[in-house]
Amino acid sequence: MINKDRLFKVTVPATSANLGPGFDTFGLALGLYNSFTIGRSDEMVYKGCDPKYQNEENLVYQSAMALFKKHHQDDSYAENLYIEFNTDIPTGRGLGSSASCIVAGLMGANLILDEPYDTNELFQIACELEGHPDNISPAFFGGLTVSTKTDTGFYCKKAPLSSELKFHVIIPGFEISTREAREIISDSVSLKTASLNIANSSILLLSLISGDAEGIVIGSKDHMYEDQRKTLVKNFDSIKISVIKNGGLSCTFSGSGPALLCVSKNNMLNTAKIKSHLYLLDEGWMLVNLPVDDFGAFFEIL
Asked: What are the residue boundaries of the GHMP kinase N-terminal domain, all occurrences included (predicted)?
């Protein structure tokens, strides 16, 4: 039996990490959403969820249990939940699907417990579960975020975005796991590479705030992982060339990919020509215009 008097709906935006050189640091919330209805139940219920995720490995369930275990100070604590999934963020594309599940599970569990934890405490737990803050930060706080890990925990700052900028994602019909995309990257980089990425990240951040087109073109260049990750996406180069040729300022992997994030200014992007190019490819690519979500995750009491 489901406790209908205590159902909560948590909605979390899609997120795009890195934005080029800001590896594991930059994040952006986008107007595409996953919603999860969560409450206590006499039996475990997964509704609207792929059968392969209807088990204790489910990220929403795992995240909720992590908070319950912390709250009850009992690593063996478990209870049944009703979790209903209404998801528009595609999995395995680098658009923060996993982060949305973690954030929703923690927020839902916190609501069930009558909110003993504040947002920063939930943010810290979420980053620990995810392992890095680049998607978690914009999922919680919305907008453009810059995050890091300090000696005392994870830290996030939100930056204003120029209203002149437009964002599109190019999403393929295939998936790449985050694990695969991370394993292909070298464990170390040269001092020169690190210096270039630090410089470009700084230029990119300032340019996203001011709307400076030249700065976005220069600053979005990554020297650390793009050349390695693009070996997993055979049409990466041709798509990037098409985007830049048709008015885009940048075209970078969205998080671990394979989806791509495109930045343009005002209405300069010729989407028709890019779509024509994508149509010729054999991997189900589609171009989607997404607004920036400036609010982040929120909940409703049902």
From this structure: 58-143
